[in-house]
Each structure stands twice: as C-alpha cells, then as structure tokens.
Amino acid sequence: MREENADIRERELTSGRSPAAIAVAVLALPVCLYALLESALKALGQEALLAAPETWWHWISTLPGRLDPAAQVAIGLCALVFGLVLLVHGLRRGRHARHALACEDGVVLVDDQVLAASLARRARAEAGVGPGQAIVTVHRDRVEVQLSPTSGTPINPALVVAGLEDELRTNLVEPLPQVYIRVAERGVIGQ
User: Fold this and answer.
1) CA 85, CA 79: separation in Å to the nearest integer?
2) Which of 73, 95, 117 is the last residue before a domain boundary?
3) 20 to 30 A Cα–Cα from 174, which one of 7, 106, 126, 167?
4) pLDDT tens readout for residues 10-19
5) What pTM value is reported for the model?
6) Is 79 in the same domain as 114?
7) Residue 165 has pLDDT above 90, yes or no
C-alpha cells in the first residue's frame, strides 16, 4: 500500500512529457502533410503546388548550397537550441504547483496557491499587518514572503519566519520548504 501511495504521489506531483511530444507533432505534421500532398499530386500527374518532390530532394541533398554562412550559423544555432530544449525536457521531469501533506493512509495534496493563502494569513497575523501587506509565493523548495509594514510599526522577521515554519510543520508539508522573508523599507498607511 505504501509503495502504491508513493507512486500515486509521484505521479500527481510531477508533470508528464505529453505537451512537448504534442508540440513536436504539431510542428512536424504540416511538413509531412505537405510532402504527402506533393507526392500525391506527382503520382496523379498534376502540377505541383510549390515544387515537385524531386526538386525538394535535390535542394535538401545540396544543402547548404548557396546559403549565406551567417544564415547557416543561425539555422544551426536554432536547431541546437530546439534540440537542447527537447533533450532537457525529456530528461528532467516537470512539476505541478502542488505540495504533499504527510498522511499514512493515503495521498493528500495541496495546491501551492492554497498553501500560499494559508501562509499569507499566518504571516499577516504574526506581523500584525493588514490584508494586502503580506505576499507569499510558494515554490518547490522555498517560501518567499514579502511584507509591507504599517508605518511606524516595526516587524520582527524572526517571529514571522518561526510562525510560518510552525504553520508548515502543523500542516505536515513534505518536504518542508525553506522560508525567506523580505520586509519593505517603506511602510504603508495602516488599514
């Protein structure tokens, strides 16, 4: 049961590679359809739309042909970047904006936006500021908090960090992200 839960948890926290495969297919499909259309027109003895298949094959076989060296470098760099993006995407799994909560009987996930809202509420309470004065962003391994103090009222960052770490431990967030806080230098008028 634990192995099954771990598999479900991993599947729900990471994104698949389907979007990249679909994007490549969408890019390759028009080229293949055009080649098929030109070949069909040639087989039926009709005029080619742009150029006959043998013209395309001749052009491809004589590449780089008369292309300017700068154009060759630009095409090569574009192909390199496209290939590297696909390679990195294929080797590195993506991640959904979710965190797992510790649970022995099943898998419990929380969306990062929901977790950020909960942490913003706690940060406002710990800092003694009003709504809109605490902005929380949750990433995979860290929580970033931006506080705008009320004018004339100092904020104790250590107290806010301790409160947020307690909130994360209370909610059993796994893995426990690191909390980073930034207090604005200028205060705002209290609400």
Assistant:
1) 10
2) 95
3) 126
4) 766 677 777 7
5) 0.61
6) no
7) yes
